[in-house]
Design brief:
The chain is α+β, with helices and mostly antiparallel strands. The chain has two domains: about 5-85, Gyrase A, domain 2; about 85-234, Cyclophilin. The chain has five helices and 13 strands. The chain starts with a strand and ends in a 12-residue tail after the last helix. Keywords: ATP-binding, Hydrolase, Nucleotide-binding. GO terms for molecular function: ATP binding; hydrolase activity.
């Protein structure tokens, strides 16, 4: 780890801890986040974690850029990684089916296996939540095994159903609401990923882990899922 600081705005600095995305980054990112919150205390306006960076937005009326850099240096002194289990583990039920996951067959062809094998490989891994973005409650997770990695669609869909589970490169995610999107869709979850009444709004937070649990169509409907085929939304 070779930390460096980049200027984002007059009252915002980016702390870059790593250059490459890796699951092993997260314990260090969480430890740094905790230290930064303690170091800046009431002068911290927002702290935004991502795959390899932490964006530190501070009160520019109280702290100068030089003072903010000093607090960051203080927070990194003798930094040690936290435990990987510091976040919550979420189990998201998923109905894997071609009607809601039209790229299942494409991924199977690319991987040289059956659709059922794609489902097995995707659902047997525990994924790290790296960051939130794109839309409220949209959690970027990884890393998907290399055999299932696939580039985003050349032409994004105008409407992707809420709850849709997809893969892009070695990341996986679930859409919290209907929106445009270019990820390879493989299934749909009935889980509420974003709720204004929930503390923190998003079901998942950076540092959490996620497992996808295959369910039947009947169970998907029982849990409140919408089985409208993806093609009907195009």
């Amino acid at each position: 780890m070779k930390p460096r600081i980049e200027v984002v705005a007059i009252d915002c600095l980016m702390l870059r801890l790593f250059d490459e995305i890796a699951e092993s980054n997260m314990p260090w990112m969480l430890a740094a986040s905790e230290r930064l919150r303690a170091s800046f205390a009431g002068q911290l306006i927002d702290l935004v974690p991502s795959y390899t960076t932490l964006m530190v937005h501070y009160d520019g009326l109280v702290l100068s850029p030089a003072q903010a850099r000093e607090l960051i240096a203080e927070a990194l002194t003798d930094l040690r990684p936290g435990t990987r289990n510091s976040g919550q583990c979420h189990v998201l039920p998923v109905w894997y089916d071609l009607s809601v996951g039209p790229e299942l067959s494409l991924l199977a062809t690319r991987a040289g296996c059956s659709v059922s094998e794609v489902i097995r490989r995707h659902s047997e891994h525990e994924y790290q939540v790296f960051a939130l973005g794109f839309a409220p409650g949209f959690a970027f997770m990884g890393l998907v095994e290399e055999s299932l990695a696939a580039p985003r669609l050349n032409t994004p869909r105008k409407r992707v159903a809420s709850g849709s589970v997809g893969i892009a490169e070695r990341q996986t995610a679930a859409y919290p609401a209907q929106s445009p999107g270019g990820w390879n869709l493989i299934g749909r979850t009935p889980s509420a990923l974003f709720d204004r009444e929930r503390e923190g709004y998003s079901l998942m937070q950076p540092g959490d882990t996620v497992r996808f649990a295959p369910i039947t169509h009947a169970e998907f409907i029982r849990l409140g899922g919408d089985d409208t085929p993806q093609e009907a939304l195009a």
